[in-house]
């Protein structure tokens, strides 16, 4: 008599997200609901944590602002990791702090490109009212050393871990290289709320997002972000409450047009090169966590 093997019954209905991920379905996370949940949680935490730290003078900057900022992102990152754990069943293959992937050459290219992007978008950002930027400059310039710690250390680490290490990582796996970079960059820019920072943050996010995509290392993204914030902070402290454009700083229309033309050319050539490299990249839509770790 033939012996039959016994298999446990499979419950009716659709498989759980964790079961899908275990079966090799990397597209299970993040869904649009997951993405909106993380963005919504950021704004909720910003309000709740802000109210908690308000009595300690967080609105005036200094140590309270630093602690408020770090607490907000620590809770956001914890929530996002919990969400991924619930959907995929594990946390493998994320948050890559690879020293091997750290590339000073790509970081230098990123810094130059970010400066060029700032020049190119200046005519657009000059159309927005600058009162919010002035208020931001006054807040930051009046916080002393803690402004530097928050902008140059806390912000690059916290924001890159969330926006690149968690959000872009998941979106890239689900939708593909360019889609993941652009979506994460748009969200990164949008959460800044100030119009000038929304535009600048989105485009700077694309540069940083590509560097992370190319190097597979959050260290490269964090260093590039820190350099960008250092330059922005230095210009704020130097100009104090004044808003000086590149054109005004140069003082010559002819020189400004030359600078602008060079910046446009650099951005255009870099864009063509980046699009080509992303299309040729190994990290394609549907790549699993295990495949990412082997790169």
Word description of this protein:
This protein has a domain at 98-278. Helices cover 73% and strands 0% of the residues. α8 runs antiparallel to α9. With 295 residues, it is mostly helical. The protein is globular. The chain is built from 12 helices and no strands. The model is unreliable at 1-24 and 282-295 (pLDDT under 50).
Brief overview:
The protein contains twelve helices and no strands. It has helices spanning 17-22, 32-53, 62-88, 104-125, 131-141, 145-175, 177-190, 195-215, 218-239, 246-250, 253-280, 289-294.
Summarize this structure as a short list of keywords or feature phrases.
295 residues; mainly alpha; globular
Mean pLDDT: 81
Work out the helix count. Answer: 12
Task: Give a short account of the largest sheet.
Answer: none
Q: Nearest-angstrom radius of gyration?
A: 22 Å
The beta-strand count equals: 0
| C-alpha end-to-end distance | 51 Å
What topology emerges from the helices and strands here?
Elements: H1 17-22, H2 32-53, H3 62-88, H4 104-125, H5 131-141, H6 145-175, H7 177-190, H8 195-215, H9 218-239, H10 246-250, H11 253-280, H12 289-294
Helix pairs in contact: 2-3, 3-6, 4-8, 4-9, 4-11, 6-7, 6-9, 7-8, 8-9
């Amino acid at each position: 008599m033939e012996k039959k093997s016994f298999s446990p019954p499979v419950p009716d209905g659709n498989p759980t997200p964790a079961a899908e991920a275990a079966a090799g379905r990397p597209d299970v996370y993040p869904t649009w609901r997951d993405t909106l949940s993380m963005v919504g949680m950021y704004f909720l935490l910003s309000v709740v944590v802000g109210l908690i730290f308000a009595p300690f003078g967080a609105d005036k900057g200094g140590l309270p602002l630093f602690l408020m900022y770090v607490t907000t992102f620590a809770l956001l990152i914890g929530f996002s990791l919990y969400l991924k754990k619930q959907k995929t069943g594990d946390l493998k293959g994320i948050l890559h702090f690879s020293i091997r992937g750290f590339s000073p050459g790509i970081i230098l290219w990123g810094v130059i490109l970010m400066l060029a992007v700032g020049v190119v978008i200046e005519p657009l950002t000059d159309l927005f009212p600058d009162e919010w930027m002035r208020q931001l400059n006054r807040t930051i310039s009046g916080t002393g050393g803690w402004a530097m710690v928050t902008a140059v250390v806390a912000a690059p680490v916290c924001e890159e871990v969330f926006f690149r290490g968690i959000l872009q990582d998941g979106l890239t796996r689900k939708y593909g290289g360019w889609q993941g970079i652009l979506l994460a960059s748009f969200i990164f820019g949008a959460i800044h709320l100030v119009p000038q920072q929304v535009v600048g943050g989105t485009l700077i996010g694309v540069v940083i997002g590509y560097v992370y995509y190319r190097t597979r290392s959050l260290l490269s993204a964090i260093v590039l972000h820190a350099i960008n914030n250092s330059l922005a902070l230095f210009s704020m402290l130097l100009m104090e409450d004044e808003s000086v454009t590149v054109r005004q700083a140069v003082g010559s229309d002819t020189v400004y047009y030359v600078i602008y033309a060079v910046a446009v050319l650099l951005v255009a050539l870099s864009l063509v090169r980046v699009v080509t490299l992303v299309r040729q990249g190994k990290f394609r839509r549907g790549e699993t966590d295990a495949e990412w770790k082997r790169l």
